[in-house]
Amino acid sequence: MELRLLEYFVAVAELEHVGKAAQRLHVSQSPLSRQIRRLEKELDLQLFVRRRQRIYLTESGRWLLRRAQGLLGQFEKIRKESEQRARGETGTLAIAFTSAAIWSGILPRLMKKFQTGHPVAGFSLRQMRSTLQVEAVKAGHIDIGFVSHQPKEEAVACQCVAEEGSLLVMPDRHPLAKRRSIRPEDVNGLKWIFLSETLSLEKQNQFCAACARAGFVPEIVQSVTEPTTLLALVENGYGVGVIRSTARRYAPRTLAFRELPWMPFKNRIFMIRGTAELRPIVAAFARCAPNDSCP
Fold it and tell me: What global pTM score does this model have?
């Protein structure tokens, strides 16, 4: 049975008039009548009683009308959902992230922006280390990743979506907490807790190089991967640290933060995805990301 036959039948059945149904369907009346008779023959059912210029549904016709309306409604729903998927308006995005993408606010902002134009789209979120995200993108296990370092793999597309400076964090009872400005010589000799979200020495080396340019060598006593861990260690007196400036909004009030203008140590967040042809929903999400966040 052709779907078009059911569409013809529903139009005639709802109006109980071939001429009016032909106008609704934008077809000629005679071919429409032949299609209805073809359907009756194919089903071996009498669907209409014909009297003069009018036709009336039989009991079998009313039964088929209910079933056909439901079937056509489902088909229309499938058609609309297919169009939405093709435009990237629906589906589920598998997104991985480091804690920095949450602390900075970049991931929540992008999700909110995306869902404004794609309200029926969904997200599957998982926290994952940067190195593991790169492998997950290459394997197709996730659609989008938010990492703290720029990957070098050719199979991974990358763009910087956020950049922020660093702040010195210390207990509010620390002697330096009473000062508005802090010089390099003020922190020389202090113990440091270092945040390395990538479990890589690259950022630590960059930090040490920045300290060296300022005239001192930092004594790093611990290297951690989570901002909350760094804040907890600093709060309990294990040392001072540098952390993303946005972390200040979530830190305990027992901590003090100070800017270090002489340490231009930037924290960047990169959005990664595969380089092969993207699903429409992935491409739509990628278009929401800023292209010029990192100078």
Answer: 0.68
